Amino acid sequence: MAKNNRTDEDNIVNSIIGTGSEFKGEFKINGLLRIDGNFQGTIDTHGKVLVGQSGKAVTDIKAKIVVVGGSVSGNIYATERVVLLTTGDVKGNIITPSLVMEEGVKFEGNCVINKRSGL
Fold this sequence. Notes:
By secondary structure, this protein is mainly β. Helix content is 8%, strand content 58%. The protein has 1 helix and 13 strands; from the N terminus they run H-E-E-E-E-E-E-E-E-E-E-E-E-E.
């Protein structure tokens, strides 16, 4: 039962940068951050970061799980998994223990599959 609660907590959107919005700065949060607008800065969370199809992020992301359907320019450090959706465009390096990449993704950078937990 505790595992289900944890999964539910991981899917609760804590913060949203909506379509048409712009945010610059440092984001330190717990929970899920969804980016559908423009973000520039750094992101640090023990939760999940979702960059939606209309999202554009110029950032370094440190998170448990990162899902990219939009554009990310910067490095991604994930302690659990990175998912690049078919509409994703990433320019930067990825370090993660698990990578899922759909057909059609644009990726320019280096990737290290690091099975050690904690980055």
